[in-house]
Amino acid sequence: MENWTEKNIATIEEKLKDASTRDKRFFRIDELKRNVERVGQFSDSCGSCNKLKNNIEEVVKIIDIAVEQPGKNRRNFDKTINQLSKHMQKQHHFYAPYYFTYLFSFWGIIIGSLIGGIPLLFVANDKLLILSIGFSLGMIVGYFIGNSKDSKIRKENRLL
User: Which residues contact 121 (CB under 8 A, 6 or more apart)?
Assistant: First the structure.
């Protein structure tokens, strides 16, 4: 499996040696290379990773065209990148940076606003103040919970 991984990463680097850093960042080339390594690593034990190898090989063949010009090749490239990311997240628990911070902050805002809305039924004055306190506290609590989960993911080196 190592030869497959190294061969594909070398092909990606060779075909995109003239591409700008901005294009490489925009098209998530570094993420693609990391996911190629992970697919090579997990393909023995994961059937989906084994199936994704064919898609990766097709994309690697046309990656220079996909980056340079819009069209069918770019759509296939984007589709494969998204499939890889979703698979790595769902099956192998790799996450984007700050994934849990954003997720828990969002739910903290919702729950905090609902909890802050309960006293509104009983208090006539300062409705906006009570609601904004619930909103803020929910967001802060969600942020800290999500940030702790994100730091755990970072320590385990499970970032996409």
Answer: none
